[in-house]
Amino acid sequence: MSAPTSSHAYGIGVIALIVGMSAVMVFYTSFYIPESLLKPSVSEHILNPEDGDFIIEIVLGAVIDGNENYVPNKPTVLLGFTNKVIWQNNDDTPHTVTPDHRQSDSYSGDFGSSGVVKPGETYEFLFTESQTVPYHCEPHPWMTGTITVEKSRF
Ligand SMILES: [Cu+2]
């Protein structure tokens, strides 16, 4: 009467295997995958660009239609060199940095200041991918700029 016993043991073995594999999959999908989605591997020189902060100044008087506002207005920044961008509000009016269309960087997330950047304050964004971002100021839609992010050719 060894046949029933061994098939019973076999059944338990299969169930144990299924349970074990399910546990591994649950662990993998709930811990490993979100972790890797959250932090895509970005090279060290993109995380710490060589030229430090790239400043875009919101100049004094930017609020007035016809004046310069975001300066430089249409720069191209290079990954690994100038991809860490800081908008600095040197005007005496609060402004925003708002993308014309929803724009996301897989490392840094959604682009755009959440709320206004007050006079004297800054908004910072680390670009890690090539992209072109047209943006504007929410309360003053005539204030517009575009930033282009490109891979370095070196
Ligand atoms: Cu504004």
Description:
This protein folds into two domains: 38 residues; 107 residues, Sandwich (Immunoglobulin-like), CATH 2.60.40.420. It starts with a helix and ends with a strand. The protein is 27% helix and 27% strand. It has 154 residues and is α+β, with helices and mostly antiparallel strands. The protein has a four-stranded mixed beta sheet with strand order 2-1-4-8, with no helix packed on it. It is built from two helices and ten strands. Bound molecules: copper (II) ion (CU).
- Which spans of ≥5 residues are poorly predicted at pLDDT below 50? none
List the strand order in the largest sheet. 2-1-4-8
Beta strand count: 10
Can you tell me the CATH class of the largest domain? Mainly Beta
Q: Classify the beta-strand content into a percent band.
A: 25-35%
State the domain count. 2
By CATH, the superfamily of the largest domain comes out as Cupredoxins -  blue copper proteins
Helix amount: 25-40%
Main sheet attributes: strand count, strand direction, barrel closure: 4 strands, mixed
CATH-derived topology of the largest domain: Immunoglobulin-like
Mean pLDDT: 90
User: In angstroms, what separates the terminal alpha carbons?
Assistant: 75 Å
Task: Briefly note the structural class of the backbone.
Answer: alpha+beta
Bound molecules: copper (II) ion
CATH architecture of the largest domain: Sandwich
Gross morphology: elongated
* Radius of gyration, in angstroms, nearest whole number: 26 Å
The helix/strand series, from N terminus to C terminus, equals HHEEEEEEEEEE
